[in-house]
Fold:
Amino acid sequence: MAGDRADAGSAGPVRPPVALAFATIGFIALTICGLGITSLVTGEDVIATPGLGQIPGAAGVVCATLAFAGGLWGAIARAGGDTQPPTHGPDPASARVASGSAAGAGARHPSYWGAAWTTAAAFIGYVGGVWFAALFTGTDLAVATAVAGRLATSWFGVVVAAAAFVAAWSGIALVRTHAHRPRWPWEDDFDE
Structure:
């Protein structure tokens, strides 16, 4: 039917811009939630220096998010879409063997190593963003460096790095997948 053919083009891997959007939103959510829970569990403020206000923390998250998005985009942007038409028949493995490649001709899969580089970029972006914002708000160099150093060597830095790793790995997995949308048995083409 015509409605089935319209769905056929959406089967297969997630496009890189969509994966980037989902992963970046997930990174922001995991970072904010993780920092809040870590603060609650440890009984410490994320930035414990009096007088700094909220600007350094917010700037750190913004810089980490930009670094995360840039790092992940570098890892997934070159991934090609599946050039083979999707198969919904009873034996999709035979169509892949016939094409000569499990991923289809011309498809490139991003490496999961991109998650490591994206994690490093987000971590450095967070610590660097807090440091620059602390300097921008009028704090002297020693205090800004102490705040950034504390974040880099405490559980708060681990939380930002873990959130970046989980979200980046998930974004890369979305682009690499060859899964199709769930289908009910009565949606199969061979029944028609």
Remarks:
- Residues 1-11, 82-106 have pLDDT under 50 and may be disordered.
- The radius of gyration is 22 Å.
- Residues 16-42 form the longest helix (27 residues).
